[in-house]
Amino acid sequence: MRKLWKIIGKIVAVLGAVYALLFAVFFFDLDGKLLYYVVEPFLKNHYDKMPRRDVTKQEYKIGNL
């Protein structure tokens, strides 16, 4: 019985630590800061380097004329 309470105590401690970690992420908006400071600049650099066609040199047609 004593062993069971030790296991339950460890499970509660782990769940409490996970809850505290998730609360800190929510409270300090760490996921948003990660996206803004890390992911967005990476994606911006990636997509800015992609080749694109120049739409100003494209022929302009109206209808089927």
Task: Give the helix/strand layout.
Blueprint: H1 2-27, H2 30-48
Concise overview:
With 65 residues, the protein is mainly alpha-helical. It is rod-shaped, with a radius of gyration of 27 Å. It has helices at 2-27, 30-48.
Protein model, in words:
By secondary structure, the protein is an all-alpha fold. The chain has one domain (2-49). The chain has helices spanning 2-27, 30-48. The longest helix has 26 residues, at 2-27. The protein is rod-shaped. The mean pLDDT is 93.
How confident overall, as mean pLDDT?
A: 93
Counted beta strands? 0
| Global shape | rod-shaped
Number of helices: 2
Evaluate the radius of gyration: 27 Å
Helix amount: 55-70%
The end-to-end span amounts to 89 Å
The structural class is: mainly alpha
**Number of structural domains:** 1
Instruction: Give a quick account of the main beta sheet: strands, pairing sense, barrel closure.
Output: none
Q: What low-confidence regions span 5 or more consecutive residues with pLDDT below 50?
A: none
How much β-strand is present in the residues?
under 5%
**SSE string, helix = H, strand = E?**
HH
